[in-house]
Amino acid sequence: MRWNILAVDDDTSTTRQIKEFLDGRINGSDDELAVDVTNDFDKALQELDKMLYDLVILDVFKGKVGLKIKIRPGEDILQEIQRRCFIPVIFYTALLSAVNDKKSDLVYVVHKTTGGLEELKTAVINLINTGLPAVNRGIINHFFRVQAEYMWKFVEPRWKEFNRIVDTKSLAYLLSRRLAMSLTRENIQYFIDSLGGSAATGTITGDFVHPVEYYIYPPIGAQYNTGDILSRKEKKRTIYGIILTPSCDMVQDDARKARSEYVLATGCIPLSETEEGKEWLQRGSSNTKTDLAEFMKNNKKKGQKERYYFLPGTFFLPGLFVDFQRIYTIPFNELNGFEKTATLDSPFAESLLNRFCRYIGRIGTADLHESEIESLINNIQKARKKKK
User: Fold this and answer.
1) Exposed, middle or buried by CB within 10 Å (0-12, 13-18, 19+), for 57?
2) Structural domains counted in the chain
3) Distance separating alpha carbons of residues 303 and 308, to the nearest angstrom
4) CA 43 to chain centre
5) How many CB atoms lie within 10 A of CB 384?
6) Which of 78, 112, 130 is the last residue of a domain?
7) 158 and 216 fall within a common domain
8) 155 shares a domain with 59
9) Strands 215-216 and 320-331
10) Gap between the Cα atoms of 271 and 12, Å rounded
11) Given a cut of 60, is residue 374 above it in pLDDT?
């Protein structure tokens, strides 16, 4: 794959060396680095607007480094990049202390003298190997393809009709929804395949899902929604709950008041604290493992089958069972005392509510006595014999 890199430094000899050293194929791989350079900090962002770059190499200072120099355009460019888009950054500087506080897993710092071009190249390869530039490029290309198909194959042939009856805002809404639906589970496989199959969902297809497909993580915005998973530290453990109140009742007005004074939630328990989990941990038999596996598929073998709903564990959430007997209410104005860990995505949020309604709305009736059932069966057999 060809990786596009922009190097920004007002020293022409430095940018020339970077380009000469990095341009070309990476040894032992099919990847190729293509380096563009600019010696004008003011034009760097214009260059980012012209082309989709996978990585940016930045100097910090303008002019020669000295104690009296306070102009740090490299920092300004980083802030602007972080405001408008996602591109990993490498600071290539002679004064590490100026940007050490900016260093992170996606913002590297390399010393021009002690590290040099070899360390710079290593940093470039390490950032590419995180896989994030590939995911970033894949998402952008996916949206370009969806937009092109919609505009050329649907809008363009109907433009005379569209131009008469559809305003710009309506067209923007239709296109946005088209883009959103292109990332539903049924349509996302093309995007995953463009990454060579290396995505969170791996090779899980068909009627099976990966645990991360249950969630939106992190949750979007400050608005509370049905299916928000709440957490709070209590003593030495974290407790979890999930919101059941309809999202529309939690929309706040201009006075920051919601329609619901209280929010309905239900508690969650760790998988290891359930009856099936405890039995499997204690006994470890194939039968207890089967019971636990069925329980995790929401097919409980013992007790009230509709009482629980399983939330699979991920790197940001432990495996949990929603327990519909642990219902409680939270004053809306006290929700900020909880952290929104994630939001249960569609259709799992709807499935949770459906199960809750079945559980809470069930009507218990007495069963027929076994002797009556046996008598009814015998009567059916007698009726068959008479017909013969």
Assistant:
1) buried
2) 3
3) 11
4) 34
5) 9
6) 130
7) no
8) no
9) unpaired
10) 60
11) yes
| CA separation for the pair 244, 260 (Å, rounded) | 12
Domain carrying residue 183: 134-194
Domain membership flag for residue 371? no
Strand residue runs (E) in 68-146:
89-93, 107-111
pTM for the model stands at 0.75
Is there a domain that residue 96 lies in? yes
Q: Which residues sit opposite 215 in a β-bridge?
A: 344
Residue 18 lies in a domain: yes
| Backbone φ/ψ region at 263: left (φ over 0), alpha (ψ -120 to 50), beta | beta
- Calpha distance 135→86 (Å, rounded): 11
Q: Region 254-283: what's the mean pLDDT?
A: 86
| CA R_g for the chain | 29
User: Residue 258: CB partners within 8 Å, gap ≥ 6?
Assistant: 224, 249, 250, 251, 252, 332
Q: Is the sign of the CA dihedral 140, 146, 151, 152 positive or negative? A: positive
Longest distance between any two alpha carbons in the chain, whole Å: 111
Characterise 206 by phi-psi region: left (phi > 0), alpha (psi -120 to 50), beta (else). left
Same domain, yes or no, for 170 and 96?
no
Residue 352, exposed/middle/buried by CB under 10 A (0-12, 13-18, 19+)?
buried
Q: Smallest Cα–Cα separation from 322: which of 300, 339, 338, 302? A: 300
Calculate the alpha carbon distances from 242 to 209, 227, 358, 363 in Å.
21, 6, 17, 25
Q: How far is CA 229 from CA 187, 218, 309, in A?
A: 26, 11, 13
Domain boundary among 107, 130, 153: 130
pLDDT per position as a tens digit, 52-79: 999 999 999 877 665 555 678 899 999 9
Instruction: Record the tokens describing residue 77, joined without a space.
Output: 């460019």
